[in-house]
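Figure 6 in text form: structure in, sequence out.
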């Protein structure tokens, strides 16, 4: 959809590019490096779901679909031939060559939604670094889905974990980074553990027939089986790019670290991930 030139007046900081619309709300870049990471993460989610885009039992001929926080638009541009799909995001980083049934809207999901009619299915994914008010967000979902429709939230939870209980933030740079991310995020109103708390909020908002499913994402190729080894490779590469994407903005703006301090610290995390394969880190999704 048409946008004003101001949304392309990006902010540049620490060598990365950030959104201009509702500037500063989302502390993660929107540049080419981050776009590539988002597309890679999309494939990790699809592999997790055995090639599917969703788990909800929506009909094949679903009509009206909303993808909140669409990012590069790769989810909405995938496989919905019968549906009119709208993807919303703060950044206009979606492709212009898309099927006629797919469109993108630059919007801040934390504002009140003004869609003309409710949707059959609403999809959100990896919003942990974006949602500041989970109850309000879920109330918006409830108000904008049709009776009998479905909402699906695919989320990554913090902190990352290890199969070895002796691995803690005291002896692991990765877990130390996770603690720092959680601290910085909380100072600006983000809850890195929010996705693990949304079940009761869904019920309080009026949703019924709620199903929760947890998957493990191995970080690296340590897990057994071809599928899990491939997933681990995706997650490893995703995390390597996520470390600077998530840290440069938050750590410099909130924790007041210099770029050099951030890069030196992240180098210790990368070293651990590369050399300490026996630590068997994973994330719950």
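Output sequence:
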């Amino acid at each position: 959809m048409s946008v004003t030139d101001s949304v392309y007046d990006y902010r540049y900081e620490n060598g990365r590019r950030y959104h201009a619309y509702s500037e500063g709300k989302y502390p993660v870049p929107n540049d080419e490096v981050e776009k590539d990471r988002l597309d890679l993460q999309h494939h990790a989610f699809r592999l997790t779901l055995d090639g599917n885009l969703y788990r909800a039992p929506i009909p094949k001929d679903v009509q009206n679909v909303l993808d909140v926080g669409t990012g590069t638009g790769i989810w909405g541009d995938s496989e919905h031939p019968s549906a009119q799909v709208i993807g919303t995001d703060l950044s206009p980083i979606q492709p212009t060559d898309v099927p006629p049934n797919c469109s993108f809207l630059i919007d801040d999901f934390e504002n009140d939604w003004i869609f003309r009619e409710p949707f059959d299915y609403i999809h959100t994914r990896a919003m942990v670094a974006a949602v500041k008010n989970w109850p309000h967000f879920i109330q918006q979902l409830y108000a904008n889905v049709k009776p009998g429709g479905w909402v699906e939230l695919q989320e990554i939870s913090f902190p990352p974990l290890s199969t070895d209980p002796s691995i803690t933030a005291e002896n692991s740079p990765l877990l130390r980074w996770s603690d720092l991310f959680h601290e910085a995020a909380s100072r600006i109103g983000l809850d890195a553990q929010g996705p693990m708390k949304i079940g009761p909020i869904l019920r309080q908002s009026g949703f019924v027939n709620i199903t929760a499913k947890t998957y493990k994402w191995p970080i690296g190729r340590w897990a057994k089986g071809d599928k899990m080894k491939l997933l681990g490779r995706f997650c490893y590469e995703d995390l390597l790019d996520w470390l600077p994407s998530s840290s440069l903005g938050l750590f410099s703006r909130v924790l007041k670290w210099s770029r050099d301090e951030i890069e030196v610290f992240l180098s210790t995390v990368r070293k651990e991930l590369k050399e300490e394969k026996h630590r068997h880190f994973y994330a719950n999704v």
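Caption detail: Residues 72 and 94 are 5 Å apart (CA to CA).
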